[in-house]
Amino acid sequence: MADRILIFYGSYRSDRQGIRLADYLVRAFADRGADAELIDAKAIGLPMLDRMYKEYPKGEAPAALETLAGKIRAADAFVFVTGEYNWGQQPGLKNLTDHFLEEWYWRPAAIASYSAGRLAGAHASVAWHGTLTEMGMVVVSSTLAVGSIGRALDGDGQPTGDGGASLERAFPRFADDLAWWTAAAREQRARAEPPY
Fold first, then answer.
1. Does 138 have pLDDT greater than 90?
2. C-alpha distances in Å from residue 124, one per residue of 42, 62, 157, 177
3. pTM above the 0.90 mark?
């Protein structure tokens, strides 16, 4: 059974370089046999959070919210691709995740950060770790951090230069870590109902 992995990306900027990393990850996980799908917050276009998915009466949530809730519930694992805005999280991606809560529970998540500079989104990665944990996910210890993203990945998400080579060396461990936790969580969910 292929791991069903949702790869979330949340920049709303007109010049979105981080989409290169998201595209790379979709392709790299697919090459390993996973069923990987990009979830682009900008393309989905959820409004600023007013009402969480669970707060709508059954069958009355907006179609985009209902569809995404189904995808999240059906997924085995998540990858959050995050840029860094002033040492913090991208608001578009944070807004998307905040529309849900129980849908995230009991699955592993991994964080891949990036920036135009050399710090590679490290501050955003740290911020996401606590957020995802609070939302009921197990955050794996392996992370990807891509600095100077415009030189590490080309417009098609293909690795280039030293940064791209570093990404390709780091990805297998990142993917193996997520796969291990994905298998463990799937087996446990099959053995016992979650405690809440």
1. yes
2. 19, 29, 21, 20
3. yes
DSSP H or E run through 39? strand 35-40
Spatial neighbors of 190 by CB under 8 A, at least 6 apart, are none
Query: H helices of the chain, where?
Result: 19-31, 41-44, 63-74, 91-98, 122-134, 149-152, 161-191
Residue tagged 């109902």 (tokens)? 193
**In angstroms, rounded to a whole number, what is the distance separating the alpha carbons of residues 25 and 162?**
18
What's the mean pLDDT in 146-172?
96
DSSP 47: P
Return the amino acid letter for 94: K
Q: Are strands 77-82 and 4-9 parallel, antiparallel or unpaired?
A: parallel
Say if residue 20's pLDDT is above 90: yes
